[in-house]
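Protein: DUF2993 domain-containing protein
Species: Streptomyces sulfonofaciens
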Amino acid sequence: MRALRILLILVVVLGGLFVAADRVAVGFAEGKAADELRSNENLSEKPEVSIEGFPFLTQVVGGQLDDVEIKIKEYEASAGGATGGGAGTLRIQDLDARMQGVRFSNGYTSATADSATGTAHVSYAELLRAAQVEPVEVAPGATAKVIRLSDGGNGKMKVTVEATVLGRKLPDPITVTSSMRVEGDVVKVHADNLPSFGGVPTPESTVRQITDFQQSITGLPAGIKIDKVEPAPDGVHITVAGSHVSLVG
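Structure follows.
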């Protein structure tokens, strides 16, 4: 019985040491991965990297991590303006991406995730800034321009348009409810109903030059793509997704 007790004590002690070593190793790996991500993506702040699953060391030996979560507080993606031209940036906040099945190759110099999903957020003011909307002439001496984006409720966006006649702004801005969708890497805003500008006959194509716009968003970390956008009270909520995502190398 004494020998059995000693054996059990040794198992517990060795198991504890293994767990401690495993946690030290995973902590070091998370820190190193965060440093590399900050450097590669030119981030202003160090991101959070969490490697899930236990034990970590056996996952490394097997050449695959089951689940890795990356949290980036602020990220500047590449963006095109309202007409799709003009390279700019779009500040994306609270990007939270989860990678499944992260496989290593080439002596751990490259890594690829089988799949990736996540969420992010863009403020209405930032989306409008990046869209680079310009005034459009609706009649001789009269122009109109989008001045504000906001939540329209029920998954819609409210677009506020300001009109100027002979250099004077009209006192009451016009609002329209718009839908958002994603086509490829382009986010499109499309007015559900077209406004009128003081009874001035205006072709639909001209009105949509004002109310409708699109914003290309590329260059997200690890090559993940925007899958869905949805207006919300605090801004536009973004869902990202990807498969066979290259993380390193």
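Remarks: Residues 61 and 104 are 10 Å apart (CA to CA).
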